[in-house]
Amino acid sequence: MVADAFVEDLAHQIESHPEFRAGVERTSTLERHHDLMVEHLNALLRGGPRDEDTQVRSRRVGRVHIANGVRPSWYVLLYNRWFAALHKVEDAGLPLPPLELLRRLWQWDLGMSLDAYHEGLLSRWDAEKGELEETVTTFRRLASTDPLTGLANRSAVEEVMRGLEGQYGRSGFFVLMDLDNFKSLNDRLGHPMGDRALQVIGKALAGSVRRSDVVARIGGDEFCLWNPSGVDDESLWEQLRRIVAGLPLRSLDIGVSAGAARFGPDGQDFLSLYHAADEALYAVKRNGRGGLKLTRQDRIHHWD
Q1: With a cut of 50, which residues of the chain have pLDDT below it?
Q2: What is the CATH number of domain 2-140?
Q3: 169-210 pLDDT per residue, tens
Q4: Is-contact 200 221, C-beta < 8 A?
Q5: Where in the chain do CATH 3.30.70.270 domains reside?
Q6: What's the angle, vertex CA 201, arms to CA 270 and CA 173, rounded to 5?
Q7: Which helix (H) or strand (E) holds 87?
Q8: CB 278 within 8 A of CB 259
Q9: 18 class by beta-carbon count within 10 Å (0-12 exposed, 13-18 middle, 19+ buried)
Q10: Among residues 44, 56, 89, 277, which one has the fewest Cβ atoms lying within 10 Å of its Cβ?
């Protein structure tokens, strides 16, 4: 009788609150919810907190609440409605279990439900936190990746160089590479073919450098390579000559001009090294293209 009075009152509360009703109807119907609540409360009154089935049901109530978006404040409403039902039965002169027993049963049931509710919140938080971290990681990767070639982009290289600022004694080369005759390829074969050529070159560059190197497309047909090793000028030339020899330039009817700036003497930040390498690169462009110039040398090394 207590269960029927409570659930009847609770059903009225649910029906008069659109938010509560929507929560119930998200996974069930009002009629099914009514029957389940009566069944649960009768089992609680009959078996008490030591009954295993009742414990399972109590925890299920909490999990259903969190799944349906029920707010914790609803538990206060439930508590008030429970004792309103008790007084209703008492006023009707109907037999009623001792109030202290009912209070303890309710507190136990509520505690079990809240525990499951809390666990559900933590589980949902962990899942959403994992999804958020994955989203942030994805956005960070996209923010530092050239979408056409999959290489690092200018922002990624700038970040690498910022991490090196102030590291006196550090050595390395910043190499700027520009594709010769790329505009002509675009004009002859169209931009889709030009994009495809950039992808092919990007993949070949990525496959020809060491793990410690950073290769990036920083805009248009311009690529760069950060070589953090302490190699000398001649060794850098030999390394770049091998890299360029492995690029499919002849099949695309394009070439490569490059300029290299040394970390330290030519600068310790991206812009300083970029401008120094860019100046060397255009010296190659003005002198026949298809080669490499280091900033501290007058000589231009041609690939052939």
Answers
A1: none
A2: 1.10.490
A3: 678 999 999 999 999 998 898 999 999 999 999 999 999 988
A4: no
A5: 154-302
A6: 30
A7: helix 73-91
A8: yes
A9: exposed
A10: 56
